[in-house]
Design brief:
25% helix, 31% strand, single chain, 9-stranded antiparallel β-sheet
């Protein structure tokens, strides 16, 4: 095992207290701290704490030794996942990600919205109460909510949402709002939502951060989710989503392919977004943990880029064995634990992480605290 020195990404939507408090540093910080990245992503790789070598360079020097021959064959000489602590104090952009086939084809064709040839499925597990938008609501329900506002400019959107074909209803509504963004219409909708509470409060909240942005109305087509600690949202390819507020552990395939749909000053590629979106109703966006052993849970996902386990150690369960082979990153989010790979054990405190190469077997965890393990299946 090797301790990691991992970078913190500072974005305007981040928190000035959450990551610092988790790591035991003084808060508030001078700038918002949005994400703690643990992995080998070339944009902000972790470093091996003893040598100072980036994990990216260490993998390049010995890909088979760190990733395993099977991992190199499947994913190339790269760590296929990225683990993060995400701390959102303000809403992030509406976004979706392509399938692997879409990413490979578009990247090979030189499409400007694709920076690599990989997909980016992702999952977030809440550490605190966490608000998010995830997947489309039933368009008939959204149509009724929007019609009740009495805003004349919404007639086309409401008509689209009332189509019997739900996929066509969602597609046509999203296209109509994004293809010809209308800041005046957004302002009228927000004014009509003011004071109504319930589902209408979302538009008012988002407009405070992104006035006149068509994404404010598009967001009303999505499920608003309040996660309790330990619950997750799973965002496969084509799922339109946005994080609103809270602290969580996020795991994703290591890609930067993002198609934005609003709530951002960045470019919105409407046609490409419409091509990758899955226009289907998501009835239950929440993914709940599955217990796989004493003190050990996971959140099953249908991809082979990553798995995520959580071990909770206390007086009743003072030791847990984390499953797996392949490269792994172990993150402590509470308390203090000892992680033993049978060769060089390490001690982790809250906010610290360590890397285990593919040659290690199961990891033995002891102590008192909460631990996440990111791995390949």
């Amino acid at each position: 095992m090797e301790l990691l020195d991992s970078p913190i990404r500072k974005y305007a939507w981040g928190s000035q207290t959450a990551i610092a408090t988790l790591q035991g540093r003084p808060a508030p910080t001078a700038e918002p701290e949005a994400e703690l990245w643990m992995g080998a992503h070339p944009a902000s790789p972790s470093r091996l704490a003893v040598s100072g070598t980036t994990l990216t360079d260490a993998i390049a020097a010995d890909p088979a030794g760190l990733l395993g021959a099977a991992g190199v064959e499947r994913f190339g000489a790269r760590l296929p996942f990225l683990l993060k602590i995400l701390a959102a104090a303000q809403p992030l952009s509406l976004q979706a990600h392509p399938t692997l086939a879409q990413a490979r084809e578009a990247h090979a064709a030189g499409h400007p919205s694709y920076v690599d040839a990989w997909h980016k499925p992702e999952m977030l597990v809440a550490l605190t109460e966490f608000d998010a938008l995830c997947g489309f609501r039933d368009p008939a329900v959204t149509a009724a909510d929007l019609a009740a506002l009495g805003v004349a400019g919404l007639e086309e959107t409401v008509g689209a949402l009332r189509q019997d074909d739900k996929a066509a209803a969602l597609h046509d509504a999203v296209r109509g709002l994004l293809a010809k963004p209308d800041a005046t219409l957004v302002d009228e909708v927000v004014a009509a939502c003011a004071g109504r509470g319930g589902a209408y409060s979302l538009a008012v909240e988002l407009a405070e951060q992104y006035p006149g942005d068509a994404g404010v109305i598009v967001a009303m087509l999505l499920n608003r989710v309040r996660l309790h600690p330990g619950e997750a949202v799973w965002m496969p390819a084509g799922n339109l989503h946005a994080y609103l507020r809270g602290v969580g552990v996020e795991i994703m395939a290591a890609s930067d392919n993002v198609l934005r749909g609003g709530l951002t000053p960045k470019h919105v590629d409407v046609e490409e977004l419409l091509r990758v979106l899955r226009f289907e109703v998501l009835d239950d966006p929440v993914t709940r943990p599955t217990q796989v052993g004493p003190g050990l849970v996971t959140w099953p996902v249908p991809v082979d880029d990553f798995t995520l386990h959580r071990a909770v150690l206390d007086a009743g369960t003072p030791a847990v064995r984390l499953p797996g082979g392949g490269p792994r990153i172990v993150l402590c989010v509470r308390g203090g634990v000892r992680v033993d790979d049978g060769v060089v054990p390490v001690t982790l405190e809250a906010g610290q992480a360590a890397f285990a190469p593919a040659s290690r077997g199961e990891l033995a965890i002891s102590g008192e605290g909460d631990v996440f393990q990111a791995a390949t299946p």
